[in-house]
Amino acid sequence: MRAAMISLLTGLLALSTAPASHAADAAKLALVIGNARYPEFVLNDVANDAQDVTEELKRDGFVVDRQSNLTADAMRQVLDRFYARIERGAVALIFFDRFAIQSNRQTYLLPVDAQIWTEPDVARDGFSLDSILAEMNTRGAAIKIALIDASRRNPFERRFRRYSAGLAPAIAPSNSLVLYSAALGAVAASSKTEHGLFVAELLREMRAPNISAEQALTNTKNGVVAATKREQVPWLSSSLTTEFSFAGSVTQPPDNKIGDPTKPEPQKPEPQKPVCEAPQAEPPPSADDLARDPVIADLSRKIAANANDVASRYKRGQVYAIKRAYALAMQDFDVVIRRNPGDGEALNNRCWTRAATGDLQGALADCNLALQIDPGLSDALDSRGLVNLKLGRTAEAIKDYTDAIQRNPRSSSSLFGRGIATRKSGGDGATDITQAKSMNPDIAKEFAGYGVWECVP
């Protein structure tokens, strides 16, 4: 899973005409920039996102230079240092979090001391993403990756535009991957419940084993789209011709069933024994914690201004449930379902909330109704799997989780739940549990919050 840090053969440089090749052994370099402290704006979440991305890239074998709150001079020096480290055939990645502006059909990343009052100021004080990718290519990077979490309506733009222009398409060299957190020309409002969702989806997919980097970014995009009900649609551009995976090499099918008789048979690992593990669940938030949460405060203001704003109430219920404020979540979901008894998504959310609090029969009724309304709703299958698991109905839980996995193979919750249900029914389950943990290292702690542990009596 951790690739060796050595250079690719120089023959990989002829990417425009060469067939698909492998980059598992390439030197992997990353620059992570999180700009949180602009003079008039302090953004506390940026540092955490940048740190999480840095840690994941290091686990995946990247040599990472993490920087924060860069002025224009500092950003120029950091980029020059990054370019100088790029070897021929390397994988070079840049992650940028916070403000960027489109100008003259280019996207510019903004340092914390940018003075943007007019259109010409953007090119003067910003850093062109097109130029950054071109320089990475010129220095010899075989694969160029840009992950830009900057698709926001930013305060600089309001000074000289009546509308947000979002970000512009990147003019990237061949063998590049570029992912924006929102669609071209669109923005993702920070007051929405999907705040931080882009990075969360990105990290989960980067950890997923045995998929290409392009597929990981496609899954990230799809995950954000599904979670926001298409309110936020990331933009992905790929010209990748070289095989590369964040979490290790993509397994290739064998050329034949016989294999190479000159090579010794690989030894099969010993079956993994069940591990008795009961992690401490996160404590529920206090009333003060909830009162200080800016997303909850924003949604509460919208609901107070318009009691019929069902969308904001549904989103607030989701936030409460995620934060384990289950009683408050139930109140919001109850209102949404009274207004629209056929809302399968709201029924699923109430099912999951009831399952977490121990109201298993009520949860089962909600999940069954949600699946009558939408039989293909994978989230409801996952939720009903949890209900059946807590009821001790392991065969039914395994079936629900398996059906959910068929519809969404990237669900760490369904994989972990099926692994636990398999163990409780007398099987092994280790493969499902291991894969789920590789995708989401906190999944065991999450299930502990539902009262479900790996420890099987």
Automatic annotation (TrEMBL):
It comes from the Bacteria. Residues 257-271 have a biased composition (Basic and acidic residues). PROSITE patterns: TPR (PS50005). TPR repeats lie at residues 378-411. Keywords: Signal, TPR repeat. GO terms for biological process: proteolysis. Pfam families: Peptidase_C14 (PF00656), TPR_16 (PF13432). Residues 28-244 form the Peptidase C14 caspase domain. Residues 1-23 form the signal peptide. GO terms for molecular function: cysteine-type endopeptidase activity. Residues 246-291 are annotated as: Disordered. This is Uncharacterized protein, contains caspase domain. The lineage of its organism: Bacteria, Pseudomonadati, Pseudomonadota, Alphaproteobacteria, Hyphomicrobiales.
